[in-house]
Specification:
Layout: E1 4-6, E2 16-21, H1 31-39, E3 42-50, H2 66-85, E4 90-95, H3 97-108, E5 112-117, H4 121-133, E6 138-143, H5 164-174, E7 189-192, H6 203-206, H7 219-232, H8 239-242, H9 256-260, H10 266-279, H11 284-306, H12 327-335, H13 341-353, H14 358-371, H15 376-386, H16 392-402, H17 417-424, H18 429-434
Parallel strand pairs: 1-7, 2-3, 2-5, 3-4, 3-7, 5-6
Helix pairs in contact: 7-10, 10-11, 11-16, 13-14, 15-16
Bound molecules: flavin-adenine dinucleotide.
Residues 243, 252-256, 259-260, 289, 292-293, 295-296, 299, 357-358, 361-362, 365, 383, 387, 389-391, 394-395, 398-399, 402 line the site of flavin-adenine dinucleotide.
Length: 435
């Protein structure tokens, strides 16, 4: 039975909270929910799916394509089930985020809003707007995205290194990942406000048919995959040697999509990798998973330092590249018709599955910027549309880096496509599979 009460606006003594899920779609390791629950006696759990995700944007297509959309709906459906098992509902709203949040806050008479802190430019702006317009609402913001929070980092975010290596050295010397929050034993009572039906999304009737994709959204699938990768396949023991492979499911962790929408916690990943190290094997490969998660961490905090510059043509260096946008060249790259077989194979893999290996991403981005001489922002926006694991920090940060206007100290990193093909697809199997 869903444990919730009917709207109760006006009873001032009740501390009523709404938890706004954004990129933290899970109940495990959820200190943001824990913090809110300490302060309130009734709670609503909500998620807002913004129409903006599906409307054509500045680059000529929508920010969210079909792969990530499907993955997100699966994730929400799983989250709803997890909440139902705890006697709660998930109120999924659709429309314009600002309009939905105003509807919700006005209808609910809330005293508190709980939310995970997120360094994304839009995410920060959204929350600032809410704080400005609802200035009596107590906003409890808790960091859940990464391994650390701003308080434990050994520098102020404005002074953080712009280059990964000094960032990593300082972090490794002074910080250990924050502990995992244990599951909350007792959630407060549920509360369901009266919201205009036009804003409510019925997740069950919105779920598309299951696709053949290997990625299934939701924290249940995420935790299962983490366990399988570590303890059934024991693949972490060889991660460093295999991570650059173009197309093999077990050769890298494949955790990115769940990490990106927060259905998996990075701290939980580290906890399980440590368990693997204690019970099975500890070596360079197991350390390297932590190393790669530090890249994620680096880009997450760096976007906070640079705000709107994260998306500018001249990047965080303020130096305009000499490339430009040609719609026809761009379209050929998107469709995998550039004439560079390794690039075309990767782009078709992306279109079909919503995923591409890290090596593949580096090659297609390098080709886009150097061989095709295109405006890097179109490439980044196309990745945003296509990737199942799209994350604003990692995607735009890696693109800035490869376009030479981000955090790469070498500035001009062009991959030799011929040589890379010989190393990573020597027998042509990958090209054959996708072309
Ligand atoms: C142009 C470009 C765009 C990218 N866009 C994204 C994106 O939108 N979302 C995203 O999660 N990753 C992005 N990456 C990083 C990386 O390619 C993916 O994280 C990785 O391929 C996902 O597969 P995996 O989970 O098997 O990675 P693994 O090799 O198993 O790595 C483990 C985890 O470490 C993190 N990680 C690994 N490499 C990087 C990296 N270079 N930067 C940041 N984090 C990293 C990811 O969270 C990943 O899941 C991008 C890389 C490039 C070159």
């Amino acid at each position: 039975m869903i444990n919730q009460q009917i709207e109760d606006v006006g009873s001032n003594d009740v501390q009523k909270g709404v938890f706004w899920f954004r990129h933290d779609l899970r109940l495990h390791d959820q200190p943001a929910i824990a913090e809110l629950c300490k302060a309130v006696s009734q709670v609503t759990f909500t998620y807002i799916l913004d129409d903006k995700c599906f409307n054509e944007a500045a680059f000529g297509f929508s920010p969210m394509g079909k792969h990530r959309h499907t993955f997100l709906l699966q994730t929400l459906s799983d989250l709803k089930q997890q909440l139902n098992q705890r006697g709660h509902e998930l109120l999924i709203l659709k429309g314009n985020t600002a309009e939905c949040i105003v509807q919700l806050l006005n209808a609910g008479g809330y005293t508190h809003l709980g939310v995970s802190q997120h360094c994304g430019f839009d995410e920060t702006a959204q929350l600032n707007t809410v704080k400005r317009f609802f200035n009596t609402l107590r906003v409890i913001e808790t960091p859940t995205f990464g391994l650390f929070d701003a308080e434990v980092l050994p520098f102020d975010i404005e002074d953080m290194p712009d280059v990964f290596s000094p960032f990593r050295r300082k972090v490794e010397k002074h910080c250990t990942p924050l502990p995992v929050q244990e599951r909350i034993a007792q959630l407060p009572d549920g509360f369901m406000p009266n919201i205009d039906k036009q804003y409510i999304l019925d997740i069950e009737s919105s779920l598309p048919k299951p696709s053949p994709s290997s990625f299934i959204g939701g924290e249940s699938a995420a935790l299962k995959h983490l366990e399988t990768y570590l303890f059934d396949w024991k693949a972490a023991a060889t991660y460093k040697e295999t991570r650059n492979t173009l197309d093999t499911w077990k050769d890298s962790t494949k955790l990115s999509a769940w990490l990106a929408n927060g259905s998996l916690s990075a701290r939980e990943v580290i906890r399980q990798v440590q368990r693997f190290e204690q019970t099975i094997e500890k070596n360079d490969s197991t350390y390297w998973i932590y190393f790669e998660l530090l890249w994620r961490e680096f880009f997450h905090w760096l976007q906070c330092k640079y705000g709107a510059k994260w998306f500018r043509f001249s990047g965080i260096q303020g130096r305009k590249p000499t490339t430009c946008h040609d719609p026809e060249t761009f379209s050929r790259w998107c469709k995998g018709e550039t004439g560079y077989p390794i690039v075309d194979a990767c782009m078709r893999q992306l279109a079909e599955t919503g995923y591409m290996s890290n090596r593949g991403r580096q090659l297609v981005a390098s080709c886009f910027v150097h061989e095709l001489r295109q405006d890097w922002r179109y490439g980044a926006a196309w990745f945003e549309h296509q990737l199942i694991d799209y994350d604003v920090g990692s995607n735009w940060g890696n693109w800035l880096y490869l376009a030479g206007v981000g955090s790469d100290p070498r500035g001009h990193r062009q991959f030799n496509l011929q040589k890379q093909t010989e190393i990573y697809d020597p027998d042509g199997r990958f090209r054959k599979a996708w072309l």
